[in-house]
Amino acid sequence: MKIVTSEIAQPTISQKLFPVDLSQTTMEERKNNLLTKMKEHQLDTIFIYADREHGSNFEYLTGFIPRFEEACLVVHSNGSAFLLLGNENTKMGSYSRIAAEVIHVPYFSLPNQPMEDDAPFTSYLVQAGIHEDSRLGLIGWKNFTTAYQDNRSLFDLPHFIVSGLEKLVASPAQLMNYADLLIGPSDGLRTVNNANEIAHYEYGAALAGQCILTTLNRIKLGKTELDLAETLAASGQPHSVTTICATGDRFTNAVLYPRNKQVQLGDTFSLTTGYKGGLSSRAAYIAQSPKDLPAAVQDYEEKIAQPYYQAFVTWLETIRIGMTGKELFDTIQTILPKENYHWELNPGHFTADEEWMASPFYEGSTSILKSGQLFQIDIIPKVKGYGGVSCEDGIVLADNELRAEIQKEYPEMWERFSKRRDYIINELNIQLSEDILPLNDIVAYYRPFLLNQNLAFSVKK
């Protein structure tokens, strides 16, 4: 495989993107699947915590997050459910996608708000059906049961919640971390999606790709990060990550957000935006050609960008339903050795409501890749003295049955998938298995020199 830089037509942006709501059938499936898992693990109750940053496991069943407050969802093995909500979210109980009794918990409200229903915290837990014999699975947002450790007694819920539960049960051993029921890389319920869920998430992933391409096409010398960042937001949709629009050195004065800083020739440059369903990111240099780069990094294209893109292409051409996470991890390690390119994280991960759910791609992983799984291609090389390189986007794996269902139920999305596959295969010369459906229009489209909108990487075999 040889990576070449040549004149490549830009991908065509999809028109008339609209969000797709999750169906009631999907929401009922989610709850029933959870109840089945609870029975398998002999759990009486699942207790799910949420706040604005860590609400996806809660949202998976309720359909909403508690915004600026905290909340808990209690689901019992008999199917009954309770929503523990603060002052400004009690009204959301009537909108919950699963039937649940609302319990007002003032402790989950904002500081110094009225505490009119104040009572010992344990009393709210008792109202929610927690008792001394309860065997509880606690779910925050982190899965501490991994290939490296099996630690179910480590919790990422606030102390006052765990402490309250400990006061009610007969033994601390009755409280266990069961986040892996939802996000575990081998059989977490949230890692596999049906056609309706894929349609729901494809909207955000596609929106992110459109924002990135629009912004790439607006890059000019003298424009500021603030100017360019305007097109990294769209349709009022909530971001799943902090927006990045950074030219030159990042994080000056610890600033994480776009600054009033002008783009200059030879700058490194990073763009990232993400919504439910996926993130898109690009990193390269502000240049027309290698001649515009600082002398010390004029070999950036062949030393960093091309090896990275070769690993990226290998990822796309290798991934398939039925392979293990270890196989893909080992393949990337062979193509882009960690000891030379210093990537530290997993070469890809699950995505959904949050940008990073969990990952099956790690050394020794026995997790089997399945139809219906959404992945971010996320390889981050770091070579001292050189700017970054990034072409991050998402894909979904779909077998014959799921593809047929998508084609039947969501023909417009199927047409977008087909168009994207055609571009990747015929314009970029990347061979995709039938299992791979690209989640946005710019998957695999990468410009190493951002001022030249005609040049992009492709494969010459």
Structure in words:
By secondary structure, this protein is of the alpha+beta class. It has 2 domains: 2-19 and 190-460, Creatinase/methionine aminopeptidase superfamily (Creatine Amidinohydrolase, Alpha-Beta Complex), CATH 3.90.230.10; 42-177, Creatine Amidinohydrolase, Chain A, domain 1. Helix content is 29%, strand content 16%. The chain contains 12 helices and 16 strands. A 6-stranded mixed beta sheet has the order 5-4-3-2-6-7, with helices on one face. Strands 8-9-10-13 form a 4-stranded antiparallel beta sheet. A hairpin with a 4-residue loop joins strand 3 (71-76) and strand 4. Helix 8 packs antiparallel against helix 9. The longest helix is centred in the middle third of the chain and has 22 residues, at 195-216. The protein is globular. It starts with a strand and ends with a strand. The model has no long low-confidence stretch (mean pLDDT 96).
SSE layout:
Layout: E1 2-7, H1 24-40, E2 45-50, H2 56-62, E3 71-76, E4 81-85, E5 101-104, H3 121-127, E6 136-139, H4 159-168, E7 175-177, H5 180-183, H6 195-216, H7 225-229, E8 244-247, E9 268-275, E10 278-285, H8 300-318, H9 325-335, H10 338-341, E11 349-350, E12 374-376, E13 390-392, E14 394-397, H11 400-409, H12 411-426, E15 436-438, E16 455-460
